[in-house]
Design a protein that fits this description.
mainly alpha, globular
């Protein structure tokens, strides 16, 4: 199962910040490639959410964002997300040991952040509001969130360039091997 840690919330904060920031700057559909192919997304790679011990938060996030991209309204999304979280929790119960924590706080954080963004709040504000749903035992402070956001602003452009360069190198190698046959 999963043991939620501060790092889980840091990683998801970075991921959500970058997705919401891109959506705000470049438009809603600019995130479509990230949502449809998270394993190939530099945002999901940068934020380390792909390395999680469970794929539930990743699937949860991409499913919600996909519905949002399809034009599902806020009220309908809210009704169905609550059902979705309950279905995940029902699935989780028989697989959980006493030492395991519920994944619900992480899903609540992700959903509250996305919902605040849908309501028109800026990415940072959405994350600040989403952070209010995190249990105090996780100890994810406002300063921790600020540090995540500052790190994203500083590092992501470099990471994005570095990742594109690696992909370009791979494409060149493929091209060279195809013409040398």
């Amino acid at each position: 199962m999963i043991k939620l840690q501060k790092a889980d919330f840091e990683n998801w904060s970075a991921c959500l910040y970058l997705i919401l920031q891109q959506m705000r700057k470049e438009g809603l559909f600019s995130i479509e490639q990230h949502i449809n192919n998270p394993e190939e997304s530099n945002i999901f790679m940068y934020s380390n959410v792909l390395q999680s011990s469970t794929k539930i938060p990743l699937e949860f996030t991409t499913n919600i964002m996909e519905l949002f991209l399809m034009g599902v309204g806020q009220e309908e999304l809210t009704r169905n997300v609550e059902k979705y979280i309950n279905a995940i929790l029902d699935y989780e119960k028989p697989h959980k040991t006493i030492k395991d924590q519920s994944i619900k706080p992480l899903l609540d954080f992700i959903w509250e952040t996305i919902l605040c963004s849908i309501n028109g709040n800026a990415p940072k504000t959405s994350l600040m509001l989403g952070r209010l749903s995190i249990p105090l035992m996780i100890e994810f402070s406002k300063n921790d969130l600020e540090n995540v956001i500052q790190k994203c602003k500083k590092d992501f452009n470099y990471f994005k360039y570095e990742h594109q360069t690696l992909n370009m190198d791979e494409e060149i190698d493929k091209f060279i091997s195809s013409i040398s046959k």
